Amino acid sequence: MTVLAILGFFSLAGPCAGQASPRVVHVFVALADNQHQGIVPVPPALGNGSDPQRNLYWGARFGVKTFFKSSEEWQLLFSGRGPKEMILDRCVFKNRNRDVYLVADAYQGSEIKSAVTDFLSAATGISSENIRVKLNSVDVSIAAEGAADIVAYVGHDAFMDFQSLPLPEPREANRAEPLSWPVPAKHSSVPTYGKPARSPYFGQPA
């Protein structure tokens, strides 16, 4: 049931050639919501789209926040409200072995359309954000949203509930073609842009 509900959608958002470190991954998470999404119902605590700490895709055992927070390879630098009211929780992690940061935003379940819209805007480079965090008492600025190296969407296959939004043209004329793939949802109606590729952070796509 969880496999059918979770959809991961990745895109290499930014150009790689000549880009200085650090690398940044930005994950857009639409919290599971029994009431506002066409998902197979899950237990109430897991399907409360207003409670990220117990949500299936965020605070539950294999949720995004719990997974990375419990990993020995990732250090949690920040956890708190996001820059938008609909982002109930934002986490920023730093890989302990590489100069890689991961930004994860938990969107209220009823705002799944906004989560998908923000993901698509980031994937095409329309939006960008600079996030400041402290690493060993030193201020660090990381480029997120459309300026990130990889953007990802985690959540219900939203295109089962509403029509696919038209993708705007990339902001940069010389921008590399986005590479993206859906994993591992079955019966997925989400379009895949470009061809599947090996991610330097997550390995071979399914």
The neighbouring-strand order within the major sheet is: 3-4-5-2-8-1-9
Tally of discrete structural domains: 1
In helices, the fraction of residues equals: 10-25%
Class from secondary-structure proportions: mainly beta
What separation lies between the terminal Cα atoms?
18 Å
**With helices defined by DSSP (H or I, 4 residues minimum), what is the helix count?**
3
Average pLDDT for all residues: 78
What would you call the shape? globular
Number of strands: 9
Please mark out the parts with pLDDT under 50 across 5 or more consecutive residues, or reply none. Answer: 1-8, 173-206
The main sheet comes to:
7 strands, mixed
Per DSSP, what share of the residues sits in E-state strands of 2 or more residues? 25-35%
Indicate the radius of gyration in whole angstroms. 16 Å
Order of helices and strands: HEEHEEEHEEEE
How are the elements arranged and paired?
Elements: H1 2-5, E1 7-11, E2 23-30, H2 64-69, E3 74-80, E4 87-95, E5 100-107, H3 112-123, E6 128-135, E7 138-145, E8 150-155, E9 180-183
Structure explained in plain terms:
With 206 residues, the protein is mainly beta. It has one domain. The chain has 3 helices and 9 strands. It has a 7-stranded mixed sheet. The longest helix has 12 residues. The chain is globular.
